[in-house]
Amino acid sequence: MNRGNRILLSCVYWAFVLYVFVPLILMILMGFKDSKFIGFPIKSWTLDWYTGVFADAEILSTLGYSAAIAVLATLISVAVGTWIAVLLEGRKFWGRTAIFGMTVLPALVPGIISAIAFRIYARYLGIEPGMGAIVWAHAVHNVPFVVLVVMARLSTLPKSQLEAARDLGADPIIAFLRITLPYLVPAILGASIFCLLLSFDDFVRSFFLGGYEPTLPVLIFAKLKSGMSPEINAIATVALVLTAAIGIWAERFTRRMNKDTKA
Fold it and tell me: Where are the membrane-spanning stretches (predicted)?
């Protein structure tokens, strides 16, 4: 690669970095503005908006509610997605393509259409709007991502390890628990964090299937109706920091797990 191409790629890279991070930095800074209105310049600074987030019982309750929904949806989607991935990977049977296509379909349907469909189906099944309906919709939407990640990991599993376990008398269940499952832990963890963040950030399905208690994205949307304010920036910043911390921890932990597996 010549010098001109390197300079071009470097410019494109830094332009992309600025495009992603500058709005986030501005959002964080606006949370320190000593005014109820968004705009520059910031003449005085305050921590009141951020301290107010942690002092507001409604916001903390909504944050915990969203986290509980995300955890439950993630547990369900990981269990179902891992089972489907193990069923499909490396096996040929009639209907495999159809099962795989139906599995990944929820990830391809536009969010608004998916939310409307879930709302209609929930009413048909008699499921009341609320936490259960949201968890159900989030879990169905997240399953395809678990399947794809786990299948990719399974495709690299050395077949010799399973064959050796079976030669030593291990039945399929024991071989799965002692060989396959430990090998899948990094992929399962990565998929779990991805699903957790997807569910926590999901607005459309939460809005259509939610009851009287809103999730954090729905609460932010409700506050936006009265106009943009530094309070909204502070709430969004706190959510951003929490999700970024979880993502960084998961990425480092997954790397360490991958190194241990290869060793």
Answer: 12-32, 63-86, 98-121, 133-154, 175-200, 232-250
Contact between residue 122 and residue 58 where contact means Cβ atoms under 8 Å apart? no
**Exposure string (b/e) for 39-74, b if CB count within 10 Å is 16 or more?**
eeeeeeeeebbbeebeeeeebeebbebbbebbbbbb
Q: Which of 86, 213, 71, 88 is nearest to 142 (CA)?
A: 71
Cβ-contact 27, 236 below 8 angstroms: yes
Backbone angles phi, psi at 45, to 5 degrees: -115, 150
Statement: 46-262 belongs to CATH 1.10.3720.10: yes
The domains of the chain are located at 46-262
pLDDT tens digit string along 137-175? 999 999 999 999 999 888 887 777 766 767 666 677 777
User: Token pair for residue 257?
Assistant: 């797990």
